[in-house]
Amino acid sequence: MRARQMFVSSALAALAATAVSAQQRGGAPAAPPMTMTVAGFSDGGQFPVKYSQAAPGVATGEGLSPAITWTNVPAGTQSFVVNMHDMDVARNKTTDDQAHWVVWNIPGTATGLPEGVPKGRQLADGAFQISATGEMYRGPGAPATGPQHHYMFEVFALDTKLDVQPGTDAFETRSNVMKAMQGHILGKAVYGGLFKRPQ
What we know:
The chain is an alpha+beta fold. It has helices at 2-24, 170-181; strands at 35-38, 45-46, 68-71, 79-86, 98-107, 112-113, 128-130, 149-158, 185-195. The strands form two sheets. A six-stranded mixed beta sheet has the order 2-9-8-4-5-7, with helices on one face. The protein has a three-stranded antiparallel beta sheet with strand order 1-3-6, with no helix packed on it. Residues 1-24 have low confidence and may be disordered.
């Protein structure tokens, strides 16, 4: 009986010592997760027409990219990737969806992207961009006669820059970016909106 009491006492002492040791090591809570905000609408809300793509003969917006910000960037981040895609599109009978905007090698010091990112293969900060429309942002464009589409923005914090050049095909380029990211993702945040063209 005495041996059992000594064993229990020893176990309790060990647990107490472990707790004290954890407190002495800092016991700090885990770093907060990355968050992302897209200007003009709430997460899960209606995508403003202003940021939709232009099309002849229908109500359209200005085709501007919305301002995007992110916070709680993980330590060691060297670059960011932004991926905007239409989750309601099944391209060529595959799991591939619509590539609305892929921007990669955004500097690790960046806290977002401004409204109205200019067209062009490479941005002033060295980042590259592409979409199914070309070297530019492609706004939402789901037809007015169908259901609303789910447009998703993702931002990835990476521990490296990617050795990927834009190709002529946005879907192949996006695939190459996603493959190059594997094993380098430190954090991620997601933000989505709904859209179909006004009647």
